[in-house]
Amino acid sequence: MEKFFFTRLQYNSGDWNTDQRMPTNLLNSLIEYTKIPVDIHERVVSLSSPKIFESPFCYLSGHKLVEFSKEEADNFKNYVLRGGFIFVDDCNHDIDGLFAKSFEAQMERLFGVDALKKIPNTHPLYSSFFSFEEGPPTTSFELNGWGDDIVHDYLKAIEVNGRIGVLYSNKDYGCEWDYDYRNKRWLAEDNTKFGVNIILYALTA
Length: 205
Prior knowledge:
28% of the residues lie in helices and 16% in strands. It is an alpha/beta fold. The longest helix is centred in the middle third of the chain and has 14 residues, at 98-111.
């Protein structure tokens, strides 16, 4: 079995290089909780590069404008339609911010007006490894009350043939998981467990 590797997508607009400790933290959780062989080094791949098609799982985040070039847009769409999985996290954790508005506009152009939809909290994503009976776990960043002052009780997704191809979050999981993995011992509950679910879903659904 090939080692799982975490791919961060670099895009020309906005600020793609956020939450720099998060990938290492999630990879540590895969090692801790599963038997999946893991490459511990994050890979950064340009969204316009054909190397994106070598990745089983991709992560895209930011705070600012998302405006794909033609090459980036083509690769994003083709990767998803070919069975790829992209987890997109809005670091602003709001629904009216620049990242949210511009990313959702990109998805509308690429996949159609109604492609990005709320997924039910009974979706298999929430039971792919750990059980999250109430849907997506809340983050401390939502509870801190900046952004739109809303705790989002849902995630959105674009599905292809009944499987999520784009998982979209306004909950700012990237910042929530952006700490040294050794500090998890101070948490009452390891908050990266939902990240394990996301990766397991991407690999097995």
